[in-house]
Amino acid sequence: MTIAPRRSQGRSCHVIPIRESLKQARRAANPDMGYDAGAEALMKETRYGMGVDVALPYEQAVERATDELQKEGFGILTTIDVRQTMKQKLDKEFRKYTILGACNPPLAYRAFEAELEIGLLLPCNVAVYETDANHSVVSAMAPIVGLGMVGGNPALKDVAREADERLRRALKALESIDGPPGA
Q1: Residue 29 to residue 159: CA distance in whole angstroms
Q2: pTM more than 0.90
Q3: Is the CB of residue 125 less than 8 Å from the CB of residue 102?
Q4: DSSP state letter for 39
Q5: Number of C-beta neighbours around residue 37 at 10 A
Q6: Which of 33, 66, 82, 161 could staple 97 via S-S, CB 3.0–4.6 A?
């Protein structure tokens, strides 16, 4: 999805803010959901993803993210240790950063049934990275935006909407964590 300039009074242009464009994409996919801007105040959103800050050390954040994804029916197909890869391939130092390839098999099957080439956009990537010793960020791709690149396939829109809901619930559960036990 690209963000297009919007005309204002026929003379000047401005860019639709990223948060607004993501909300527009969600509303277009399901206008009856009634997304409340106030309800998502802690979740950060970009044009292509959503994420939460968690009061957990990196290793615990990876573990808890995996657990919350599993509660929503996602298994982890791939785990990419970005820090290790950067060191091995480029001899560069990088922060602790993992990309989890999360897959919900029933949703994936429905997506493949709706659009065979959808494998180019799967699995749902979830990134976990360290911001300091006791804090991390967990972010996920925005399925409605990502799968929206395919076009107006209604079956695929339903899959994207459900994946989005499940990923949001997983992130919301992480958002409520106060910190590691004993912190």
Answers
A1: 10
A2: no
A3: yes
A4: G
A5: 9
A6: 82
| Domains of the chain listed by start with CATH number | 48-175 (3.30.310.70)
Task: Give the residue carrying structure tokens 């049934």.
Answer: 113
Give the DSSP letter of residue 17: P
> Could you tell me the two tokens for 173?
């559960």
Rounded CA separation 80/126 (Å): 10
CB atoms within 10 A of CB 119: 11
Identify which of 115, 118, 127, 124 has the alpha carbon closest to the alpha carbon of residue 143: 124
**Residues 72, 105: contact at Cβ < 8 Å?**
no
Q: Which residue has the tokens 């998502």?
A: 40
pLDDT tens per residue, range 69-82 = 999 999 999 999 99
More confident residue, 97 or 6: 97
CB atoms within 10 A of CB 69: 27
Q: Which residue has 């080439």 as its token pair?
A: 117
> β-pairing, 49-54 with 44-45?
antiparallel
